[in-house]
Write a structure and sequence with these properties.
Helix 2 packs across helix 3 and helix 3 packs antiparallel against helix 4. By secondary structure, the chain is mainly α. The chain has four helices and no strands. It has one domain.
Length: about 80
C-alpha cells in the first residue's frame, strides 16, 4: 500500500497561500506541481513495492523530484499575492 502523498502545502505550510494562488494563476506552476506529485507517487510506489529498478535510474528519478521540488519552492517563496 502506497503511503499518502505529501502535498506542497504540507511540505511548506508557511507557503500554502502562495502555492494555492500560483496553482490558480500559473498554468506552468500547476503543471510542474502535478508533475512533481506524479513523480513522487511513482518513486514512493517503487520503494514500497520493492520493485527492482536500476540504481542509476532510481537515483535520476529522485534527483528530478528534488530539482522540481526546489523549483516550486523558489517560485512559491518569491510569489507576491
Amino acid at each position: 500500500m502506497t503511503s499518502p502523498a505529501r502535498t506542497l502545502e504540507t511540505e511548506f505550510p508557511d507557503l500554502a497561500d502562495s502555492i494555492r494562488h500560483l496553482i490558480q494563476d500559473s498554468i506552468q506552476f500547476k503543471n510542474d506541481r502535478d508533475n512533481y506529485h506524479k513523480l513522487d507517487k511513482a518513486i514512493r510506489g517503487l520503494e514500497e513495492r520493492g520493485i527492482a529498478t536500476d540504481d542509476d535510474h532510481f537515483r535520476e528519478l529522485k534527483i528530478q523530484r528534488a530539482q522540481l521540488k526546489d523549483q516550486l519552492y523558489q517560485q512559491a517563496r518569491s510569489h507576491k499575492h
